Amino acid sequence: MGRVHVLPAAARGVRLADAVRIYLGTITVANTRATYAAALDRLVADFGADTDVAQLDREPDRVSGWFTFVWGAKSAKTFNIRLTALGSACGYWREQGWLTGDPLVRLRARPAPPDTSRALRRDRVAEILGSDAPLRERVLWHMLYESSARAEEVLMLDVPDLDTTNRCAVVTRKGGAREVIAWQTGTARLLPRMLTGRKSGPLFLTDRKARPSVATNDIDPASGRARLSYRRAAELFETHTAGYADGPYTLHQLRHSRLTHAAEEGASTPVLMKLSGHTSVRSLAKYARVSDDGLRRYQADSDPAARRQSSFAIYITSHVGDA
Question: Do 177 and 260 lie in a common domain?
């Protein structure tokens, strides 16, 4: 039997445990980090902490078999969240030169069953908007919720399109119509901090400078950074909300939630149509349905027994006070 040659650590590459630790250290949102760690820690446990991360490149069949064995019987949502975690880590490792291929090439996300309750609860929206996400993301999420505009419409805004004094901007709606959207205090407070005096270029920018192939009108002339794409914005939001039990959420749910909440607050049909940009009441109907939470709140507020009990309590309190 020939001698086994053990390569030095540098030649072997990066230990899987170290690669996972380093990647998780780049995720600043605790919720997301914990969710991704569930998949990556299992990878380390089953493949071995000392395994060279580059070994995953050479065994895509083993990786896909392992993944299917561990999460194949889970729901489509859980399956897809774990796949997203591993895919994001592999993308980071490729950027570092620790991987050259895609160990997940045999795997595909599963179609999730349609969600008939798309609106988020108010407290969940408040939690997302008040999170410790980066400033750019928080401005975008506030603007999408408060204006109920489509993400594509907001992402196409340029700084000169804004009327910060009146808290509004003109967007191009689906179909090409130019209409005003308006936002509230949350956006108004954060927006100046993100702009830092910028007067031109796209409103929402990428973190890095644009490639030479990017169109000039999608580049900020001062920084050279490009307009943030819908795909990247959606990915960031889903990553941030992946840790919730019913997550991850989509950018569209912010729009849907605002319209549902406005309907629950008694907004008229013309106001809802102006908010949404719809020209058909039929198109608006699916967005303006009262949520389960709204139904429970309405029932509690309109319960005659509860009102009688409240009136009796007021009567007792006032008479006890007189005594």
Answer: yes
Statement to judge: residues 141 and 260 lie in one domain: yes
Considering the domain architecture, whether residues 169 and 83 belong to the same structural domain is answered as no
Task: Print the SS3 string covering the chain.
Answer: CCCCCCCCHHHHCCEHHHHHHHHHCCCCCHHHHHHHHHHHHHHHHHHCCCCECCHHHHCHHHHHHHHHHHHCCCCHHHHHHHHHHHHHHHHHHHHHCCCCCCCCCCCCCCCCCCCCCCCCCHHHHHHHHCCCCCHHHHHHHHHHHHHCCCHHHHHCCEHHHEECCCCEEEEECCCCCEEEEECCHHHHHHHHHHHCCCCCCECCEEEEECCCCCCHHHECCCCCEEECCHHHHHHHHHHHHCCCCCCCCCHHHHHHHHHHHHHHCCCCHHHHHHHHCCCCHHHHHCCCCCCHHHHHHHHHHCCHHHHHHHHHHHHHHHHHHHC
Could you tell me the residue range of the domain that residue 17 belongs to?
A: 9-96
What is the pLDDT, as a whole number, of residue 116? Answer: 42
Residue 323 has pLDDT above 70, yes or no: no
247-289 pLDDT, tens digit per residue, is 889 999 999 999 989 888 888 888 888 888 887 777 777 666 6
pLDDT in tens, 177-187: 889 999 999 99
Total domains in the chain come to 2
Residue 211: the pLDDT is: 85
In a domain, 117, yes or no: no
Q: Lowest mean pLDDT: which of 21-25, 67-71, 257-261, 292-296?
A: 292-296
Evaluate whether residue 26 is within a structural domain: yes
